[in-house]
Amino acid sequence: MKNFIWILILFSFIVSSCCSQEISSNKTKLKYSIIAGEGGGVTGRHSGVFIDTSSAVYSFEGKSFDTAKKDSVMMLDNAKIEKLNSIIDSLMNYDLRESGNIYKYIILKNSKSEKRLSWIPGSVNAGKLDTYYNNIFEIAKFNK
Question: What does the pLDDT average to over 61-69?
C-alpha cells in the first residue's frame, strides 16, 4: 500500500511538472526594421544600430549601411519592442530630409514601405527627432 501511494505521488508530480510548463511563442514583432545612425564628414563613414523586425540588434560601422560590418549585439524583449513600436508610430508624423556635411538619420523599413528621416545635429527643424534617436539607442543598450 505504501508503494502504491509513493508511486501515485511521484506520478502526480511528473504529470504536474510537464503540464505546468508553458511554451511562449507570443513574441511581439517590430512594425518596421530600424536603422539609426550618423555619418558623413571628411571620412564619409557611418555608424549606428540596426534592429530587424525579429528584434535582433546589430551595430554597424562603414562607408554605407549596405557594405558596413554588422555585429550582433542582443535580442530585445517584448517590453522594449513595444517601446520601439511606440517610437515608430511617433516618427510617422515627421517628414524631414536635411543633409549636411555630418548628419543623423533614422530609416524605417518593412516589406511594404520605407520612411527616411535625416537632419543636421542641432538643427532647429529636427524637433523631437534627437530624443527619438537617443531613445532608440537607449532601448538597444548601445553606446553611440
Answer: 78
